[in-house]
Design brief:
about 280 residues, alpha/beta, 6-stranded mixed sheet, 3-stranded antiparallel sheet, globular
Length: about 280
């Protein structure tokens, strides 16, 4: 029995889902972008993801900012505490870290396979065909598209869900070169802004953006269901009047559930293993 257990482990018990969460902003006035990433990380960790399944890029931990009155993320709708709602492990070296992460050069992707679903989320200040990096330089449409193409070359993956949550997010990917297993979700069209919740007088900033705030609310209400197509989910849960911008997707009509809930799989076990 012990031998069987060991062989099962060797032959491939693995986590099927991984996530890369990227905050391209920094400094206190961009509190909401930090909150976006932390809220999504909290969703994933509550659904079975471990810190080893999630790679987070954030240039700063804003909870260490001197202007923070309370050492936790606080919005009008929920509060997130370190080591309780999320695990604060960040990559924060440089602009190139972001492209390397999207390209598949990240330690969380070392054991991926054809069963792996990968969620990539990016937030920050965007424009027509670019997103700013810490107000110093830019990641352009071709940079990100090339990185997604390179990801396919070096990692075996089942599906990739790439969410761009920024102004003019729909221009951040060259859709004509989108790999066939990548679904691209944008939270705003060309010429549109993505929007935040109401201004917080207590924090003196906008605390979180509408898309992630409502996704967190939907998750808390346990309304992310298995088997619901992304097209139907967006139509029912993210109407323009709610998020004040147009949420769209390009690529396979996947199931969001498959990317935000963790699953354990056992694969490639020889037929005579239990003999």
């Amino acid at each position: 029995m012990l031998l069987s257990f060991i062989l099962i482990f060797i032959y491939g018990v693995s986590c099927s889902n991984k996530a890369i969460l990227i905050n391209c902003s920094w400094q206190y006035e961009n509190y909401r972008h930090f909150s976006n990433v932390i809220a999504l990380q909290s969703i994933l960790e509550s659904n079975g993801f471990t810190p080893k399944d999630i790679s987070v890029f954030s240039k700063q931990d804003l909870l260490d900012d001197m202007r923070m009155r309370e050492k936790h993320i606080k919005t009008d709708y929920f509060t997130l505490e370190k080591n309780k709602n999320y695990t604060p492990i960040f990559r924060n070296t440089s602009y190139f870290d972001i492209l390397n992460m999207i390209s598949g050069n990240d330690s969380i992707l070392l054991n991926t396979n054809e069963h792996t679903n990968l969620l990539i989320y990016i937030t920050g200040h965007g424009g027509d065909g670019f997103i700013k990096y810490c107000n110093r330089t830019y990641l352009y449409k071709n940079d990100i598209t090339d990185a997604l193409i390179n990801l396919q070359r070096i990692r075996k993956l089942k599906s990739v869900l790439f969410i761009a949550d920024t102004c003019q997010a729909d221009t951040l990917i060259d859709k004509s070169r989108l790999p066939e297993n990548v679904t691209f979700v944008s939270t705003s069209l060309k010429g549109e802004s993505s929007h935040s919740t109401t201004f917080s007088d207590r924090l003196n900033v906008f605390p979180i953006d509408l898309f992630i705030m409502h996704l967190y609310r939907i998750h808390q209400e346990k309304r992310i269901f298995n088997g619901v197509a992304l097209s139907e989910f967006i139509k029912s849960e993210f109407p323009e009047e709610l998020v004040k911008s147009t949420v769209t997707f390009t690529g396979p009509d996947v199931n969001l559930y498959d990317f935000v809930f963790q699953r354990k799989i056992v694969q490639n076990i020889p037929e005579n293993l239990y003999l």
